[in-house]
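Lab intake sheet, docking and co-folding queue.

SAMPLE TYPE: protein with bound small molecule
LIGAND NAME: fe (ii) ion
LIGAND FORMAT: SMILES
REQUESTED OUTPUT: full 3D complex as structure tokens
PRIORITY: normal
SUBMITTED BY: R.K., bench team

The fields below were copied directly from the construct record.
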Amino acid sequence: MTVSNVIEEFYNVSDDGFLKIALKYGNPIKSRPDSGIIDTLITRTSDQVERDSLTKRYGAENFPIHTDCAYLKTPPRFILLKYVGDITEVTPTVIVHFDINRLTEEEIDFIKHRIWFVKGENKGFYSRILQNGILRYDKEVMKLVNSDSDLMETILKKMTTTSISWEKNKVAIIDNYAVLHYRPKVSEKEINKRILQRINII
Ligand SMILES: [Fe+2]
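RESULT FIELD (auto-filled):
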């Protein structure tokens, strides 16, 4: 799969335009019961937030590589992100291009057959990394069921990455079933200022 198939970018997108793009891709869903269709993600330090989240755990540090909403049985197919902050030269979002052709037979077997327990919203469920066309990985919410050695670190190191650089009112659409992503460590000046809006699409 080429880069253009998994990410699309638009520039100078209005509020209206953001929703229109979302509707073109599918049905927007709330990421949390108490959130709106448009979520606002603000870079904060760990001590600024109460609820358990990546920000609570990692603050301004490197976020781990993940699928968005891996804890949902059916995670959103597409993630729309729009940068709405005022500061320039913000830390990009990094896309990890998951390419099965880079893997050994043992690694392919690992991602297709090893069973993980996913801490869901209620009682949790079992899943593989690649299952029914969905790529699901988030070590924050997933644990290998048996004591097999975890090959994911080696596997992820084999993948190429690209960056989504941000400028005000730029929108990027990520195919959440095909690629993984993360946010690298941010600089001090980005705290409270690196602001992204997100719409999840099913
Ligand atoms: Fe994410």
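REVIEWER NOTE: The pocket of fe (ii) ion is lined by residues 66, 68, 181 (CB under 6 Å).
SIGN-OFF: pending second check by T.M.
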